[in-house]
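Hey L., structure's done. Input below.
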Amino acid sequence: MSQTEATELLAAVQGFLRQSVLPQLEGFDAYTTRVAANSLAIVTREIAARGTLDALDHAAAARWLPLSPATEQPARALGLALRDGSLQPDADLVSYLRQRTLRQMAIDNPRYSAFKQARQRWPEIAALASEQGSRA
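Output:
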């Protein structure tokens, strides 16, 4: 199944839940249906952004963890290296971390107020993340 087909299927199920099922429900059932529809939206954004986010993470790991073997979880490896002190942050690493955070927040909840604040606080990082995301 292609990425497009998967996102189209997710969008169809999400639309069905929101337009056909949700209006007929109340209380806890309505709440859990909204949660399900929102979860499908997150998965859709995750699928759409995964390639770009993976490329960003692998490039960062190759740059800052050159002696480590290729890892399935480069962002985690970078985080662990920062935590144990084997990697010292510099301006470029901080830029990567901000860019990654903005990308992850865009997946998790693009309407989140902290996401909007971060984009305003780091406009150059937000522009770079948007530019690179549109090329993926």
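The helical segments are 3-21, 27-64, 74-84, 91-108, 113-121, 123-135. Confidence is low (pLDDT under 50) at residues 132-136.

-- N.
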